[in-house]
Amino acid sequence: MTQTREAFEARLRQIGTERYHDRHPFHHRLHGGDCTPDEVRAWVINRYQYQHCIPLKDAAFMSRVEDPDLRRAWRSRIEDHDGTDTNEGGIRRWLRLADAVGLDRDYVASRQGVLPATRFAVEAYVRYVRDKSLLEAVAASLTELFAPKIHAGRIEGLLKHYDFADDSALSYFRNRLTEAPKDVAFGLDWVLGHADTAEKQDAAANALIFKTEVLWAQLDALWGAYVEGRIPPGAWQPGEGLASPKAA
Ligand SMILES: O=C(O)c1cc(C(=O)O)c2c(n1)C(=O)C(=O)c1cc(C(=O)O)[nH]c1-2
To answer: Locate the Thiaminase-2/PQQC domain: which residues (predicted)?
Structure first.
């Protein structure tokens, strides 16, 4: 049976409560100050793969949208990450974080050493958005409903526990605090308006679940490799990719 708008929204939010990656032990370790410097570096390197692919995902989405009003609403997402003449953009802000933790930003941007599971998970998200319905593609982005809370907690936890953390290093997250809510308000309204049958509601809910799995899988990979020490062949090894002292 088709759910009311309110009940369907509650169902989507419940998925976040149960499955969002704020519950992952790696995040607890990171935000609680328990990560070693190399674990933080591994997170910065691997998460860059996500940053790299988000604009590809949004461009793939826009290439399929025939409604100019929807493209107009969506295109700021690409600018938020890639930047404009007046906005540095999220990708460069992420590289400031790379600098702060002592990594060579060219190494990070090269995406050499990214864990295989991270690569596969992030590529699966780009493909999903390319191949599934527009409704599923927009619904998959709704994990951002839950992101401001984790970004705020991360800013607080990193500032409290790590010497590298300062306003410049964490500027990526501070910017997302204002960028994400506008995107997600639009995306949520769009999904609630377009998921007007039980089948579409199920498809949208499953898209959101899929996306929580994309996020969770990346942190599982990080934990296995760098907390438990099973680094896959070819992945970043501590000591690699460091900035020269002058640049650090
Ligand atoms: O740090 C995080 O936990 C987190 C999560 C997510 C997310 O939920 O997908 C995004 C971001 N950050 C983020 O910074 C971001 O720009 C972003 C874009 C998207 C998306 O699906 O389009 N998710 C996320």
So the answer is: 10-220
The SS3 assignment for 103 reads strand
Q: How far is CA 3 from CA 8, 137, 192, 193, in A?
A: 6, 20, 10, 12
Helical axes 171-194 vs 90-100, angle rounded to 10°: 140
Q: Is the CB of 143 under 6 A from ligand 1?
A: yes
Mutate to test the pocket of ligand 1, among 12, 31, 50 (most ligand atoms within 8 A of CB): 50
Give the ligand 1 atom nearest the CA of 90. Answer: 16
Residue pLDDT, tens place only, 210-239: 999 999 999 999 999 999 999 999 999 999
What interface predicted TM-score (ipTM) does this complex get?
A: 0.94
CB 211 within 8 A of CB 143: yes
pLDDT tens column, 138-188:
999 999 999 999 999 999 999 999 999 999 999 999 999 999 999 999 999
Our CA angle for 172, 174, 176, nearest 5°, is 70
Tell me the CATH number of domain 5-227, given options 3.40.50.2300, 2.30.110.10, 1.20.910.10, 2.40.37.10: 1.20.910.10
Contact status, residue 203 vs residue 140, Cβ threshold 8 Å: no
Q: What is the pTM of this model?
A: 0.96
| Ligand 1, atom 2, residue with closest C-alpha | 147
